[in-house]
Amino acid sequence: MAADSTPALVQSATSDGGPTPVGPSSAARGPRARNTKAYLQYAATKIVGAAVSLFAVLVTSFFLFRLIPSDPVKQMTGGRRVSEQQLENLRHQFGLDQPMWKQFTSYIGDALTGDFGMSYQFHTPVIDKITDALPATLLLTGTAYVLYSALGIWLGTRTAWRNGSRSDRFNTAFALTLYSVPSFWLGLLLIIVFAVGVGPIPGMFPTGGLESGGESGFAYVIDVAHHLVLPVITLVAVGYAQTLLVMRSSLLDEMGSDYLTTARAKGLRDDVVRRKHAVPNAMLPTFTLMFVNLGQVVAGQILVETVFSWPGLGGLFYQALSVPDLPLVQGLFFVFATAVILANTLADILYPLLDPRVGR
Amino acid sequence: MNEQAQQHPHHRTLLAAGLAAFSLTAALATPLNPFPQEAQAKDSGDKTTLTVAVAQSVDSLSPFLAQRLLSTSIHRLTYEYLTNYDAKDNHVIPGLATKWESSSDKLTWTYTIRDDSKWSDGEQATAKDAAFTFNKMMTDEGAATANGSFVGNFKKVTAPSDTQLVIELKKPQATMTALDVPIVPEHVWKDVKDYSKFNNDDTFPVVGNGPYVLTGYKTDQYVKLERNKDFWRKTGKPQFDEIVFKTYKDQDAAVAALRKGEVSFVAGSPALTPAQAASLKGEKNIKVNEGPGRRFYAIATNPGARTKDGKKFGDGNKALLDQKVRQALFRAVDTKAIVDRVFQGHAVQGEGYIPPRFKDYFWQPSDSQKLSYDTKAAAELLDDAGYKLKDGKRVGKDGKPLDFRILCHATDPNDKAIGKYLKEWWGKLGIGLKVDCIDDVSVPWYAGEYDLAFDGWSVNPDPDFVLGIHTCAALPTKAKESAATDNFICDKKYDELYQKQLAEYDPAKRADIVKQMESWLYDSGYMNVMAYPNAVEAYRTDQIKSIQTMPTAAGNIYGQDGYWSWWSAVPASSSDSGDSSDSGSSTGVVIGIVVVALLLIGGGVFFGMRRRTTADDRE
C-alpha cells in the first residue's frame, strides 16, 4: 500500500536497482551513496543561496524604506503640542539625528542579533510587537491555508476528472468569480450577512476581533474559533481557485498518459486510477504552488485582517507604513521576506524527494 | 492580577494544538456560543458593560508617552488632572486641585490639592505625586515625550505639604489652569527605570485615581476599565460597571457591530461618513448624535518657508506673497457649496479660526471685513494685483500664467472632492490648479515645497496651541526639518498679540486678544477656514439610556475634554432593550438546523469514505 501512494516516477527511480540495500555500510558504497552526496551538495547550495538572499533583503530593507519621503517625528507628534526641544529629543531617541552610514551599520549589527530597534509609535521593541502579532496571523492564514489547499486539490481533481461536464464548468467559473472578488469586499459582505444578519439569516458570528475578552480555558478556545470562522471563509473563498486551477490543469496533462491506460487495462476501478496513479503525479506543480503560498502565510492578509480587525502582522504592517514607523516596517519586511525565502528553500530541498529528476 | 501575562499562554497552547484542529473547532463553535458579544455588550449577569468601538491603536498606556486621542482619553478616565473642564460650557473646574491662585507678579502658582482622592491601591493622592510628575517631565527626556511642552516654561515645582503644590514660572503663562497632564502615583512610578520605554502595560490593574481603573489590555484588541468605587467625586457617579474600548480597524465593520449590538457606541475618525450616518438614521434602537465639531478645515497658503534665523527655503509660488492674490483665492471659494455638497450638511460654514463650539473665543468678521464669496470681487483683486486676464488665463507682469499646486491628503475624500471644486472655481478666474494628493503630506509641507495645502486642526478649550503654531518661535531651526510651525507664518504684530494673550490672566481680556489674532489671520488671507465639520457618532439606545454630550447643548460624545460622556452614561434597563431575546431564540432554531444538517452531511461523507476505503483494500 505504501509504494502505491508514491508517485510512479519516484517509484521507478528508487526501486529499479533491485532489492533496497540495507545497513549503513551498503548505503555508503552503493548508488544511493552517490545520490545522497549529490543531494546534500544540492541542499547545501540552496541553503547558502537562501542565506545570501536574506542578507540582501536586510540591506535592501534599510535603503528601500528610506526612499519613502517621510518625516516620522512629525507624523508621531501630529496634532499635538510639541516644543522644539521635544522634537530634538525624539530625533535623538530614535537615532534619526545620526548620519546615514552610522544608522546603517548599527541597523545591520543589531538585526544580526535579532534586534530591530524600537517602534517609533509604540515605544516597544519591534521584535516584541512582531512576536505578539505572529500567533494571530499564523492561526488565521494557517487555518485558511490548510483549508483552501485541501479544497483546491479536491475540487481541482474532481473537475479535471470530469473535464467538460456541467459540474466542471460550474466549479471552474464559480472559483474564478470568487478569485476575482476583492477580499475586503467579500469580508464586509460576510459581516453584513452572517455577523449582523439579513432577513431570515441570523447574525451568527462576531463582527471582528480575535476574542470577546475575559474568556479562559476551553471557553477561550471556542471563542477564538468562533471569531475565526468568517475571516477564514473569506480567505478560503478568494484563495482556493488558484490551487484548483493548477491541480486541474496538471491532472488534465496526465490524463492522456499511457500509464493510466495501463492501470485501467489492469482492471482497476476508475476511482483508484485517479487517486493512486494520476493524482500523485499531478500533485507536483500543486506542491510548488503550496510552498509559494506557505511563505505568504506569515505575511498575513492585510485587507482581511483589517476588515475583521484581526490583531495580526498584516494589520500591523499597515499601521507601521502609515506613520511610517521605519524600524517596525523594516522588521516586518524582513520577517515576511524570510518566510518566503525559507518556504522556497524548503520546497527546493524537498522537491528532489518528490521528483528525483530535480537536483541531480 | 496580571491579565496580559495570564492570557499569553493561550496563544502557545493554540499554536501547539495545531492549525487544523482549529478549523474543526471553528465549525463546532457556533452552536455552543452563538452570542458571546451581545451578552457582553448588555447586562452580563450583575455587571453592566459599555463597549465603545475605536479605530485607533493604543500607542502607549504610559501618561508620559501616550499621544493618541484614544490613549489620552483612557488616561482622562484613569488618572486625575489638576483641573477639568465643565461639561456644559468647557469652563475650568476643579480636578485633583480644588483651587488655585497666582502671585502678584504672575510667576508663582499655588494649587490646593484635595485630601479626599485615593489611589486605587489605597494610598492617599497628594501634592507630592503632582510635584513628582512635573519634576520627572522637567528632568527626564523620556518622560517629556508626550507633554513636555506644558513644563517648558516651568522653573521649579515643589510640594510644601500634602495639599499644596507650588509651580514657579520663567514667564507668565495663561494656560496654568489647562495643564492637561495626568498626575501619576509617585510610589509606583519612582521605580521606573527608562521612561522612554516603559508602557505601563505589564501589571493590571494599573494604579490610578480616576473614575475608572484600567484592568486589562490586549494590543489591538481591547482596553478594559472597571468603575473605581472609591473615586472622590460622589455626585452623579458612573453607572456602567465596566467600559471596554474595542478595536475595529474598519469603520464599516464598526458600524455593522453597532447595528448588531456588539458595541454600544461608534464614532468615526473623526466622524461617521454622511453615508454611514444616513444608513443608521431611523434604525431601531440606534441614535445618531451630531454635534458641532472641535476642528476647523481650511486652505493654507505658503507665505514663504523660512527658518528661525530668516533663511528662506522651499519653492512656494511668489504670487502668494501678495495679500490681494490670497484674498482673491479666498473670495472665489463657495463655502456654502462645500458644506452642502461635500459634507452633505454635516458641517458649518467656516470664517474665523476657532470653531463656534468654543464660544468664548469664537470670532466672526464684521460685514465690512467679510471676504464673502464673490467671483467678481475676486477678479478685481487679481486685476489690482497685476494679474490680468489674457486668453482665459491670468498672466503676471512677467508674462507667466498664474498656476498653483495644492497639497491634499490622499486618505481624505473631502480633500479630493474640494480639490475638484477649487479647480473649477479658480479655473473660471483664469487660475490653474494642480491637486497633489499624497499619503504623507508632511515632507513637502516641511520642505516648503507647496503653494497651498488643505489644513485642519482640532482645537482645545484653551486655544493656546493652535494660536502658537503661527508664531515666529514655532519656525524650524533648520530648513526642511519638522517644527512646531504649521505654515511658516511669522508676523511681528501677531507675535505681540500672542505673547499678550499668554500673559493675560483675565479671561475676558484674554478672549479679546485672541479674537484680535483671529481677525489678523483672516485679513492676512494666509488661512482660509472653509468649514467646521460636525462630530457624527451613534449609539444604541437599548444599551445606553442616556449620555452626556459636551457642551451639553448639541455637543459630542467621543473625545471630550473631560470624562463626562462615559462618566454620565446610564445603562438601559432590560425593558428598554428591543426584541433581541426573540431573535435569539429564532436564531437558536436556525443554528440547530444548521448543526443537524452539518452532522448529517459530515456523517454521510464519513461513511462514504469508509466504504470506499474498504473497497480499495479488497482490491
Please, could you describe this protein's structure?
Chain B: This is ABC transporter substrate-binding protein. Chain A: It comes from Streptomyces citrinus. Chain A: This is ABC transporter permease. The complex is a heterodimer of chains A (about 350) and B (about 625). Chain A is mainly alpha-helical and about 350 residues long. Chain A is built from 15 helices and two strands. In chain A, strand 1 and strand 2 (about 200) form a beta hairpin. In chain A, helix 7 packs across helix 10 (about 215-255) and helix 10 crosses helix 12. Chain A starts with 7 loop residues before the first helix and ends in a 6-residue tail after the last helix. In chain A, about 40% of the residues are buried. By secondary structure, chain B is of the alpha+beta class. Chain B contains 19 helices and 24 strands. In chain B, the strands form six sheets. In chain B, strands 1, 2, 9, 10, 11, 12, 13 and 22 form an eight-stranded mixed beta sheet that branches. The model of chain B is unreliable at about 1-45, about 575-590 and about 615-619 (pLDDT under 50). In chain B, strand 18, helix 13 (about 415-430) and strand 19 form a beta-alpha-beta unit. The N and C termini of chain B lie far apart (about 60 Å). In chain B, helix 1 (about 5-15) crosses helix 2, helix 10 packs antiparallel against helix 12 and helix 16 runs antiparallel to helix 17. Classes of the chains: A mainly alpha (about 350), B alpha+beta (about 625). Chains A and B meet through helix 4, helix 5, helix 7, helix 9 and strand 2 of A and helix 1, helix 2, helix 3, helix 6 and strand 11 of B.
